[in-house]
């Protein structure tokens, strides 16, 4: 279902009908033949969980634009064309390599769908009819809604607006803020500063409400720890270094069991209930992997990377550049990736890595963010202390030899960012990290797209290759609004700065 920002309240009855009938039809009350209005706490909680914390497919596609992904060169061109425009950072990523329309720029609609659900919860939670519902449970519901809205706006602003810059944020176009569910036929973009202020307020409200609740829920639900982690991420993106340190330190104090020793648990999935490092998990992994109908189990290949018509061949996979960053004694190399007929693919969405959700808020990010903030402030020893804590759980041996000199601030900053890439790869971070660090981490990304044909099978002979380069600071780091949205509201301001990137034959 594709939802647009303009007709939110018109689509709300349909959304609730589809969602609730599929998830919890045993306790619904039909108001009329085309709408179902949630009344009870169970219904509100089910709507929020199913719509806000299960369907997250849009996050997978951002990886195509990063330096963590590369093509499988010999796979036939038609199997790679669907994501060619995104992989080569074209002006219009909604067109395939063959010029056909592809629903790739769908993050806008899906994320505003999350905003809609959160707004509905916050607007209508006072209407819950259960006479015996305690305030604690209601506080938890509203806290989760604030968290969901903050997460959605955070993803929106970092996809469809330039990276945060304190000197220009008050004037730079961001994304529209919608706090209700009413109909509007015209809407404008708020500034980047206004959107970040809304994110911060939502997270502050979420944390306060979590503090006022005694509910004990599964890791499929966000909680105070997850809200603190997202808040620290927001401060990191704003380069508010001391706030990053303060927030992550508060979070780490709430997690006395510390980081998970991957190097002592090589045969277990990383994301599981027994891992104290897991703060919150979300996204159903079944939707991320190719279904192996022959064996009745998922194959090893993420669905978006598969070659059409094959259960065993990947059209895209992990770049050699990323793989070569890991040392032989780094256990992440074994736990984070899988071989798919000769090319490595991510295992982050596979049962090898997770028995829970396909995306996870982990305590490791707090150590990485605190280390980056301290390094940026010149506190390099503190930064390296955090990196030693992390790597001692990831390296099967002595990790101190790989650390840069404490006296070289830039080397420490780069080391931390590289470790962030290695630790959090394929968890939706890399594209945003590349955007936000361009003031001090300049890097041009090159993607090669090869042309190959075959009369049978999914691989063939390479006839030609083109190299595409995304320069550091390129306006193509910001996506244009989807065509469907600008058609509905032609007066909305567009970014209008993306460039057509041409391939060079090799």
Quick structural overview:
This protein has 17 helices and 13 strands. By secondary structure, the protein is of the alpha+beta class.
Terminal CA distance reads: 41 Å
What percentage of the residues does DSSP assign to strands (E)? 5-15%
Radius of gyration (CA) equals 23 Å
Contiguous helical run count = 17
Could you please describe the fold and organization of this structure?
- This protein is globular.
- The chain has helices at residues 8-23, 41-52, 58-61, 77-80, 84-87, 107-124, 135-160, 192-211, 224-237, 241-253, 320-323, 332-335, 363-376, 380-391, 409-424, 430-436, 483-488; strands spanning 30-32, 35-36, 69-71, 278-284, 289-292, 297-302, 316-318, 337-340, 343-346, 357-362, 445-453, 461-470, 504-505.
- The two termini are 41 Å apart.
- The protein has a three-stranded antiparallel beta sheet, with no helix packed on it. The chain has a two-stranded antiparallel ribbon with strand order 1-2.
- It is of the alpha+beta class and 506 residues long.
- Helix 8 packs antiparallel against helix 9 (224-237) and helix 13 runs antiparallel to helix 14 (380-391).
- It is built from 17 helices and 13 strands.
- Helix content is 38%, strand content 12%.
Describe the SSE topology.
Layout: H1 8-23, E1 30-32, E2 35-36, H2 41-52, H3 58-61, E3 69-71, H4 77-80, H5 84-87, H6 107-124, H7 135-160, H8 192-211, H9 224-237, H10 241-253, E4 278-284, E5 289-292, E6 297-302, E7 316-318, H11 320-323, H12 332-335, E8 337-340, E9 343-346, E10 357-362, H13 363-376, H14 380-391, H15 409-424, H16 430-436, E11 445-453, E12 461-470, H17 483-488, E13 504-505
Helix pairs in contact: 1-2, 2-6, 2-7, 6-7, 7-8, 8-9, 9-10, 9-13, 10-13, 13-14, 13-15, 14-15
């Amino acid at each position: 279902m594709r939802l647009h920002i303009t007709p939110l309240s018109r689509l709300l009855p349909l959304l609730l009908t589809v969602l609730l009938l599929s998830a919890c039809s045993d306790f619904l009350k039909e108001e009329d033949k085309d709408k179902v209005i949630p009344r009870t706490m169970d219904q509100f909680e089910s709507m929020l969980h199913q719509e806000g914390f299960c369907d997250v497919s849009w996050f997978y596609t951002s990886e195509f634009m990063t330096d963590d992904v590369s093509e499988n060169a010999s796979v036939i061109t038609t199997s790679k064309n669907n994501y060619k425009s995104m992989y080569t950072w074209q002006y219009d990523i909604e067109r395939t390599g063959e010029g056909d329309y592809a629903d790739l720029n769908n993050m806008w609609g899906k994320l505003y769908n999350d905003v809609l659900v959160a707004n509905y919860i916050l607007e209508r939670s006072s209407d819950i009819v259960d006479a015996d519902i305690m305030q604690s449970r209601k506080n938890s519901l509203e806290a989760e809604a604030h968290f969901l809205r903050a997460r959605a706006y955070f993803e929106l602003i970092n996809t469809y607006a330039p990276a945060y810059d304190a000197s220009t944020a008050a004037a730079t176009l961001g994304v529209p803020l919608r706090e209700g569910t009413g109909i509007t036929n015209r809407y404008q973009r708020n500034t980047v500063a206004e959107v970040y202020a809304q994110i911060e307020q939502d997270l502050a409200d979420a944390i306060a409400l979590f503090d006022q609740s005694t509910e004990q829920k599964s890791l499929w639900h966000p909680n105070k720890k997850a809200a603190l982690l997202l808040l620290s991420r927001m401060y990191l993106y704003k380069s508010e270094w001391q706030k990053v340190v303060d927030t992550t330190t508060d979070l780490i104090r709430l997690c006395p069991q510390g980081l998970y020793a991957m190097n002592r648990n090589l045969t277990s999935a990383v994301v599981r209930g027994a891992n104290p490092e897991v703060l919150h998990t979300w996204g159903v992994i079944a939707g991320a992997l190719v279904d192996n109908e022959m064996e009745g189990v998922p194959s090893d290949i993420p669905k978006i990377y598969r070659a059409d018509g094959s259960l065993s061949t990947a059209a895209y996979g992990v770049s050699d550049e990323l793989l070569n960053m890991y040392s032989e004694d780094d256990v992440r190399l074994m736990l984070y990736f899988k071989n798919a007929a000769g090319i490595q693919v991510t295992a982050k969405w596979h049962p090898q890595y997770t028995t829970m959700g396909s995306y996870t808020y982990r305590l490791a990010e707090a150590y990485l963010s605190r280390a980056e903030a301290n390094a940026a402030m010149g506190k390099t020893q503190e930064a390296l202390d955090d990196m030693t804590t992390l790597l001692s759980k990831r390296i099967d041996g002595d990790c101190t030899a790989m650390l840069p000199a404490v006296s070289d601030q830039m080397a420490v900053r780069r080391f931390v960012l590289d470790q962030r890439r290695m630790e959090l790869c394929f968890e939706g971070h890399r594209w945003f990290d590349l955007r936000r660090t361009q003031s001090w981490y300049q890097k041009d990304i090159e993607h090669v797209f090869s042309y190959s044909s075959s009369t049978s099978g999914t691989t063939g002979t390479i006839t030609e290759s083109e190299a595409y380069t995304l320069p550091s600071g390129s306006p193509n780091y910001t996506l244009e609004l989807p065509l469907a949205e600008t058609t509905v509201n032609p007066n909305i301001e567009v970014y209008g700065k993306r460039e057509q990137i041409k391939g060079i034959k090799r």
